[in-house]
Amino acid sequence: QEAINRKKSSSESFKTAAHRSEMGPPPLKMEELGRRAPQWVRDNLVTMCMRCKEPFNALTRRRHHCRACGYVVCARCSDYRAELQYDRSRLNRVCQECYVFLTGHVVLEDREEKHKGILEKEASEISGRSLLCSSLQLLDKSSKGGTRGWFVIPRDDPLVLYIYAAPQDVRAHTSIPLLGYQVRDVPQGHSRHVFQLAQSRQVLTFAADTEELKRRWMRAMARSAAGITQPEEDEDADS
Question: Cellular location of this protein (predicted)?
């Protein structure tokens, strides 16, 4: 029993560390901007600019890091320079938001402000107050291939599943209203952990990394599909 307890404790510690790694470094507090070097958000966690939300591509929209907050931003959103105390007050590339905060200068916006809807909420922000979030694979009709993404059921919108391309993205590319769906188990053996959402003629097939994660998603989706909005008592550790 002691060996089992040690194995379980080690497994939970590994899952927590892996989850934190996927979520990326915590953001600096506003009063720390420019005074302390930030931890950079890893490039592979982001598919679009964390400020303007435009997708990156290899030719016209490259990735840059703001030296004040560590966000991954495009050239347009990082075309500013500000003195940073942690770098001996030398001028560094920063994003527009950090530039305004550090210098007090007002930047005239040349594009219309868009209303920030639920699809534009940051994945890291919404994951931090979710009923359940993790990486899953949405399989195609053949169930042989599919798209991997970051899946979230938020606490403030518990009847909808949001799909992000990466954990640090600032806009979900797809949302699926879960109300009315049926959750089906699809036994696949030890190599694959597959389950489905079915409604009328529409069937969505998902693959989880572990059997435990599959069961957690099936339970969470079933509750949302039934219209249950209150979190389970033991779900605090899942958020």
Answer: Cytoplasm, Cytoskeleton
